[in-house]
Amino acid sequence: MTVDSLLEEVRRYGSELSLDGDKLIVKEAYKLPRSLIEQLKLNKHKFIKTLRNDELAKKAEFIIGVSGLLYEYTLNKHSSLYLEQLNKKWFVWRETYQRHRSEAINSKVIESGNEFEYVLLKAKKYIKFVQDKASICFKSNR
User: Fold this and answer.
1) Is the pLDDT of residue 139 over 60?
2) How far apart are CA 107 and CA 97, in angstroms?
3) N or C: which end of the chain has fewer CB within 10 A?
């Protein structure tokens, strides 16, 4: 089972996982079957890493698509930024859409790397670049 599917299973039983520093906290653990608790113990470090990545992504105003695997940030009404783990490597890319078209008309890989924090940093720099560029365009049109 993947970490994401185990997280869903925990939620299905009405329990929830959170972090307290380096400790994994299981709220209402009594609701979980022993087999699931054993899976949590066996994969504790993966859960901590996933929850930490989720926290960092939320702080950067990304939306969690799939916990620990996929995050999305809307740049404007036509473009979104995606942060995704594929084959143990992190990628951040932008997709641009046109009105009345379901597929992207343009995509650009911004960065890739082995560490989530590194790729998230590059994503945040790209977001700032786009925001600054939009601000300059807005000021020049006045």
Assistant:
1) no
2) 9
3) C
